[in-house]
Amino acid sequence: MAHLFCNFLLIWPLLLMPCFSLRLPSNAVGLSRIKHRSKRDDDTIAFLAVGDWGRNGNFNQSIVAAQMGYIGKKLGIDFVVSTGDNFYDDGLKGEGDRAFKTSFSNIYTAKSLRKPWYSVLGNHDYQGNVEAQLSPALKKLDKRWNCKRNFILEAGPADIFFVDTTPFVQKYFDNPKKQVFDWRNVLPRERYMSSTLTNLNVSLENSKAPWKIVVGHHTIRSIGYHGDTQEMIDHFLPILEAHKVDMYINGHDHCLQHLSNERGSMQFLTSGGGSKAWKNKIHYGLHNDSMHFYHDGQGFLSLEISRDKAKLEFYDVFGRPLHRLTLEKGNKKKLLV
After folding, report:
1. Is 287 annotated as a binding residue?
2. Is position 52 annotated in a ligand binding site?
3. What is the pTM of this model?
4. Which of 40, 219, 220, 247 could cysteine-pair with 232, CB 3.0–4.6 Å?
């Protein structure tokens, strides 16, 4: 009963958001910011999104990485987004863990991928030394690496909001599998969750970017192995809907998929096919009306974004295009699949 009461205290203001403006605390400051300047004259950006990848090149990670290099060169990408579970199975042991080199630096070697990587943490990252993965020392080993718990990437016409979703998922605290999680700087949990949600809300409210994109590890809507994440629906979805977020990009399910939100025009995009995939468990019949595409296999996602249009494409492990969509801004938002 106490647990339910605490959750109610966390989410009750969010339930009012579709109808009322949420009154923000006077000390709310929003998320930390990183500025990425586009090299193009028209201020457009291009990037790749991949998740659930760090397996020392195994389970086709190296093959996916090679195809990312080809597509990255073709599009002239500005950066790469990682949707979490960056190092399996138990994150990094420390700043000197060889896995950083054998699962990242030595794998994504194409010239087109020698660009900044902006990463969120996944649940497997929390089973290692989280502070090591967040440490500036890793950037000295590979200058591409950028990983924080929660932050904004200002990139041309888009503000991309990276959020730390693992502390919101109750089963990791119930922990029936007796896994070891690194909860340093997360506990007390309720305070961390409240701060994360408040800062996200402040940052979305203050954003003037034409495109608002949120990146987190866990699914909101999915027909894949893990399915929907109820805590994401309870805590994050009302905020994203209230601020008319255009896209939510996640990993966690080791697949590629595209769904539309049942309310508004937000798109749910899963890019969790960076290495081991093929769970062969699909929730058929779930979200039939909003489902556009599902691939139970490895691959990645590309995005090209200008002020009035976003072109997205999913690729499989061999670099073959599987699914394309175009989002248009203007008086009426359009989804062209």
Report:
1. no
2. yes
3. 0.91
4. 220
